Each structure stands twice: as C-alpha cells, then as structure tokens.
Amino acid sequence: MDSIESQTSSGLSVNRREFLEGLSIGAIATTGLANAGALTSGNEVHAAENQPPSNADAIATSTARILVGAPVLQCPAADGMSVVWQVSGNATGWVEYGTTKELGQVVRPGGYGLNSMDSPVLSARLEGLPTAATIYYRVAAAPIDFQNAYKVVRGETEYSEIYEFRLPDPDAKSFRWCVINDTHEVDQTLSATLGKVEERQAELMVWNGDIFNDVRSEKQLVNQTLQPAGRAYATTRPVMFVSGNHDVRGVLARRLEECMLSRPDNSPLGRCFSLRCGPVALIGLDTGEDKPDSHPVYAGLAQFEPYREAQGAWLAKVLTQPEIASAPYLVVHCHIPLFGNRRKDAVEGQLEFARFCEQGQKFWLPHLEKAKAQLVISGHTHKHRFMPAESGQVMAQLIGGSPNLPLATVILGEATSERLQVTALQMDGQTLGTWTFPPRNPA
C-alpha cells in the first residue's frame, strides 16, 4: 500500500549480469551479485601475468567467516528443492546432501564448464530427490581472491551445520502451511510473525508480498529475504515468495530473483507457482503494481498488464495438470485482492488497480471458477477482512493484516481429506476467525 513512505536512493551504481542459461543437469545457480570486472586486451593479460605476486594471498589464512547466516529453502517440488545462502565476499560453494546425516552427494552450481563464483549470494537446485523423503544437507563456501586470470587464490572452506527437510508429498493425508504479508521491513513484526509460524509447526510458509518498502540496496535485498530481523527462518521449512507492489519498486527491484528464486519449471513466469501438498493444491500469482502501466510514476518502465494476461494462459494449463486437478482443495495466493470495492471517484470504464486487481479478475477468475477454487489469500490493504463466496463472488477471499505489530496476522491453513480449515491469528492475541471448506471434488 502507498501509505508506507518510500525511501529513495542516491549515488548508487548497479551492475547486472544476465541469467545463466543451459546450466548442467542437477545444478542451477541464480544470477549472482558479483562485482563486474574490467575487460582487458590480450597484451594487458600477459603484462599482468608477468607482474610479481602481490600480498593478497592473506585470504587463504584469513580468520573472517565466509558463511553468513543460515541457508534458506525455496521452490519445493515433489523431487526437488532450491537452497540459497549468503557469503561475506567473493566465493564458490556447493551443497552436500543425502537421506542420512552422512550426506554423500554433492551439487555444485554453475554452468558452461564453470563452477559458480559469486557474492554475496550463492544458490543451488537439488533435483531427483526420492519422493516424500527426509533430506539432510549442509552448505559450503570457499573464499576466492581472483587477482588475475593466472593467479586465483582460494581460501579455506567453511561449512554450515547439517539441517534437514521433508519434501512435499502429494499423497500425504494432511498438510499445514502459514501465510504472512505486508511486513514492510518492520523487524518487530517480522520477528513476531516468523515466531508464530514456527510455533504452529507449519510445513511451508508463503510470504504474500510487500516484503520491502522499495528495493534500494544490495544489503537490504539480501538481509530482508535471507535473514529477516536477523532470524534463521527457512532451514527446515521452505518459503514461497509472492511479490507485492512495493517489492517491484526501487533501483534494485529487477534483482529480486537473485534472492527470491524463480521456480525452474515456470520461466519466464517464475514468480508464479503451483504445488501439490497432500490434499491441497497451492497456487501463487503475481499481481504486480497497483497503478496502470501508463502512470507517470513508472517513467515508462512498467509492463505488468501483459504480464498478468500471460499468467492467465499459464494458469489455464496448470489447473488441468493431474496433480493439481485431483487435489480436494485449491487455494490461491496473490498480494493484491481479486475482489474489492471500486473507488467512488473511479472513471467509468477505467480498470481498478489499487484496491483490487481487476485485471486479475479478467484473466484469472474464469480459469479459477472452472477449477472450483475455494479461497484466495491476499494482503495489500493492511486491514484484515474475510469475504465469503456470495453475490457473484466465485470464491472466498481472506485478506491478511498490517505491518503494525498488533494488527499483523499469520494465516494458518490445515488440510485433511475431510476438510480445509483456515484460521487468521492476529499478533495482539486475537483469533480473527476460522473458516472451513469442504472438498471441491467430493468422492
């Protein structure tokens, strides 16, 4: 919501590099946050080669820690999981994993014959994991001092502790997940809501948009996604990110995917997701900004309107996939609500953007109605509200609360073969409501 005051940046120079494509099977690295190096001619390379060694070898014996914080699990699948971890400088890294604490397998992210070397974030994709298994893993990093093409100094490897996670099981009898939204970089709210997610023993968390006010710096980008409020929060429970309108603002908004990974099977709509977890199918959609693309505040940089339309085509296909179509429950997550009241001063025929996503209604609702979706969980308004499916509204809508700590919410979903129960918990201690849904495809 625009009630949160945006902060601006000044004097910030940003270097970006393209996504790695054609990565080796079993290893996927996200775009790095490395500093760009200067290109030299062949003669200059040889001149550097003949220079006497520098004293930069100290990196090999440095006592500075290269691993920062704890790893973050993202993008779960029935047979895969992504792992993201932070490093304090230029480093290479990998993930060791297995079905026991002895681990035994390694995935080294990279591509085109090179292992990854990035800063301050590394990531890898674990694929081909046994269905419904418990997986043990740890991340590793080794600092790299790339002095020139003929002198690369590698420091000592550092390892995280061993963690474990369970893959989502489409055949599980029950599933429990939590949703938070509109945390807007408020540490007290983040700490309280993440603590409540832990307390409720959720198997997965959906972070339903407006993680940021706007994305202004690399430090902010990394800290808010990988160690919010200084917490390790997704070492054993994966997080699925749904971007909000504030998350696509700011000079570094185009680098979100470096920490908020795209699902590998959804490109170029990687911020959308579909996932079967026991009796429930979870869908994530990206509502984008809350103003028309033509609004002058975007300076001609926005193209969310065709992006929403493309998501509709993607959604039509996803909802017919057997694992999604056969789920007893279908729950949608998107930041801006799909239902709401038009503004009193709205021009006739003009699309509504700020209060609800009218374009989402146009391109998404026909497919969701056909699939008998039961619930959409949203945020954005900073005010809890439940709207039952009635008066032409094809499914119920539950809106989460505010970044203001007492009014912040955690939404808990619990699905069994008999019922889906959803509860909104407010951080002031109130239970705002519990709603129950029968299966959409009764036996």
UniProtKB/TrEMBL annotation:
Family annotation (InterPro entries): Calcineurin-like_PHP (IPR004843), Metallo-depent_PP-like (IPR029052), PAPs-like (IPR039331)
Gene3D superfamilies found in the cross-reference section: 3.60.21.10
Record carries keyword Signal: yes
Keywords linked to the UniProt accession: Signal
GO molecular function, one term: acid phosphatase activity
Positions of the Calcineurin-like phosphoesterase domain: 178-383
SUPFAM superfamilies: Metallo-dependent phosphatases
Keyword Signal attached: yes
Top-level taxon in the UniProt lineage: Bacteria
Protein name: Metallophosphoesterase
